Amino acid sequence: MNRLAEATSPYLLQHADNPVDWWPWCEEAFAEAKRRDVPVLISVGYAACHWCHVMAHESFENEAVARLMNDDFVCVKVDREERPDVDAVYMTATQAMTGQGGWPMTVFATPDGTPFFCGTYFPRANFVRLLGSVATAWRDQREAVLRQGAAVVEAIGGAQAVGGVTAPLTAELLDGAAGQLAREYDETNGGFGGAPKFPPHMNLLFLLRHHQRTGSTRSLEIVRHTCEAMARGGLNDQLAGGFARYSVDGHWTVPHFEKMLYDNALLLRVYTQLWRLTGDRLARRVARDTARFLADEMHRAGEGFTSALDADTGGVEGLTYVWTPAQLVEVLGEDDGRFAADLFEVTEGGTFEHGTSVLRLARDVDDADPAVRARWQDVVGRLLAARDTRPQPARDDKVVAAWNGLAITAIAEFQQVAALLVSAGDEDANLMDGVLIVSEGAMRDAAEHLAAVHLVDGRLRRVSRDKAVGEPAGVLEDYGCVAEAFCALHQLTGEGRWLTLAGELLDVALARFAASDGGFYDTADDAERLVTRPADPTDNATPSGRSAIVAALVAYAALTGETRYREAAEKTLSTVAPIVDRHARFTGYAATAGEALLSGPYEIAVATDDPAGDPLVAAARRHAPPGAVVVAGAPDQPGVPLLAGRSLVDGRPTAYVCRGFVCQRPVTTVEDLVAQLG
C-alpha cells in the first residue's frame, strides 16, 4: 500500500500513484522492516530534480521493478528539502562509500537505519540487479552486511563530529581565503571549476565585502567578470529573469533548467551589492529582474516563496525555454527574428538538443544606444508573451523556512539600494517602481507567513504548503536564515517586533543546537535521533546552518548591543576558521560573516522624522561598510534599541555611528557621516 497520498511534500505526492509500497520517513516504516526482517530502501530526491524523474519513470512506475522492491524491502521516500537532516546523514554515507553524491540518492539500510550500501541514480537494468544482490546479501551474508554498516556509521560519525581544531578568523586568514579564490578562479569564463559549473554566490558576497575592507581590485574584478558571464549566459533566463541551478558546461551556456529559490535569493544579494558599490548598469538590471522573478514567479499570495520550478516540462528538459531561428521569425517577423537570433546566439545548429538553442546575450546592450535597448526590450516582451503560451514547468510549491529567510533578506537589501540609486529621471524608473512594490509585498507576505504559520509554540517548523504547516522540525539553517531575515526587516521597516522575533529564534538556537566547543549541530537536542547527529560546517548550495546562525548573531548583536551574541558568533566562527583556511570555496558565507565582524560591524542609527527621505539615511545605506546595520526613525522608538537615547541635535536629523560598541560623535551633515564611514 502506497502511503504518500496524504503527504504535504510535492515530491512525495509525485510518487503517490507508484506501484511501490512507499512509506514516508517515520518510525513505523523501520518497525515494519524489523517485523519483516528486511532491509530499508531509502530513496531521497526533490521535486525539481531531473534524474529523480527519470529514475521514477524507469523503475518506480514499473510494476515488475516495484514488485521486487515490495517483496524484499520496506521502501521509504524522502524529500531532501523537507528533511535536510535525513539527507545530510545519508549523503555523508553515500559520499564516504562512493566518493561522490547527488540526487536521486539510493540507500539500503538495516531496520535501525544504519546504511550499508549507497548510490545515486541507477538505470533500470542496473537497479534490478542491485535489488537482487542486496536481498541475497541480506539473507546469506548478514554478518558482513552488518559489519559494513557499522563501518559506515563510524565513518560518517567522524565526518559530522564537532569538537575539532579551532582558530580565530583573522584578517590574514580572510585575505588568504580571497587569494585562494583568486588562484582557483576561471580567468576565461568566470566562476570556479569546470563542468558542471554552479553560481558561486556566497563566494562572490565574501569577495565584495573583502573588496570593501581592503580595496582589493582583484576581488572586485572576479565578482564583476563572473556576474557578467552568468548574466549574459544561458544560466540566466534572458526573457523572464531568474537563474537556473547550474550550467552543464564550463562556460554558462546550457543550464540544468530547474530554478531554485535559494540560488535566486543569494544571487539577488550579489547583484544588488555589486550595483550599490559600482553603479554597474548590468548589475542593476539583473537585480531588478531577479527581484521581479521572485515576486512574480516564486511567490504565492498569502503564503511565502515556493521552492523551485522544475527542470522538465511534460517530461522534457528545457522544453519551455529553448528556441530555433525559425521560431524566432515566426514570433517576431523576419527583421526582428534575425536581430534576436544574432543578439541571443540562436543558430541553425543549436546549443542544446535537437537543433534548439538556449538564449544568451551576445553583446553588452545595457550601455548600448537607447534605440538598440528599446528594440531589445520590445523583442524580449514579445518572445516572453509567446513563451507563456507554451507548456510550463511544474512548481514545487512548498514553503521552506530557511530559503524564505534568504529571499526576505535579499529583497530587503534590494529595497534599500534601489530606493537610493533610482531617480525619477531614469529611463526604467517606472518599471523599477513596479518591481519595488510587488517585491515588497511578497517579502512582507513571506515574513508574516513565517511568523504566523511556521512558528509553533516558540519553535520553527521546516516547511508548509497551502498555508498548513508540516511536521518536520526546523533545522539550524532555518533558525539562522529566518533570524537574519527578521533583522533585515527590522532595519528596513523600523518595526521592533521583527527584532524581538529574531532574538527569540537565536535564543532557541543557542539553547537547543549549540555544541560545547562553540560550534552547532544541525538538529536540536530534542529532535528525532538519527544514526548520527549532523553538524556540517561547510557551505554548499545554501549556507551551512553554522554560517547562517553566525550571520544572524552578528546582525542581532549589532542591532541590540548585547555582547553575548557577538561572543557566540566569534566562538562559532573559530570552529570554521581552519576550514576557511584550507577550503575557501566551501566557506563563503562564513567568510562573509567574518568580514562583517572584522569591519565592526558598524552600527548606524539615524534619528529623523523622515526615515524614507532623509539624506542622512540615504548616505548611511549608500556607504555602509561590510555587514553594517542601519536603523532610522524617531528617537527612542519602542522596540528599536539603536534609537534609544539618540536625540536630534539642535532639532536636526542626526546620525550616530558606532563600531564594535564604541561610538563616535553624532553628526548632522552627510559629509561628516561619510567621513566617519570611510
What can you tell me about this protein's structure?
The structure is a single chain. A hairpin with a 5-residue loop joins β4 and β5 (115-119). The model has no long low-confidence stretch (mean pLDDT 94). The longest helix has 26 residues, at 429-454. α4 (63-72) packs parallel to α6 and α13 (325-332) crosses α14. The chain is 51% helix and 10% strand. The termini are far apart. It has 678 residues and is an alpha+beta fold.
Annotation keywords:
678 residues; alpha+beta; five-stranded mixed sheet; four-stranded mixed sheet; 21 strands; 10% strand
Question: How would the blueprint of this fold be written?
Answer:
Elements lengths: L9 H5 L7 E3 L2 H10 L3 E6 L4 H11 L2 H10 L1 E6 L4 H15 L6 E5 L5 E5 L4 H17 L1 H18 L11 H14 L16 H14 L2 H16 L13 E2 L7 E2 L2 E2 H18 L2 H18 L9 E2 L2 E2 L2 E2 L7 H8 L1 H10 L26 H18 L7 E2 L2 E2 H21 L7 H26 E2 L2 E2 L2 E3 L2 E2 L6 H18 L2 H17 L32 H16 L2 H20 L5 H12 L2 E6 L7 H8 L6 E5 L20 E6 L2 E2 L6 H8 L1
Parallel strand pairs: 1-3, 2-3, 18-19
Antiparallel strand pairs: 2-4, 4-5, 6-7, 8-9, 9-12, 10-11, 13-16, 14-15, 16-17, 18-20, 20-21
Helix pairs in contact: 4-6, 5-7, 8-9, 8-21, 9-10, 9-11, 9-22, 11-12, 11-16, 12-16, 12-17, 13-14, 16-17, 16-18, 18-19, 18-20, 19-20, 20-21, 20-22, 21-22, 23-24
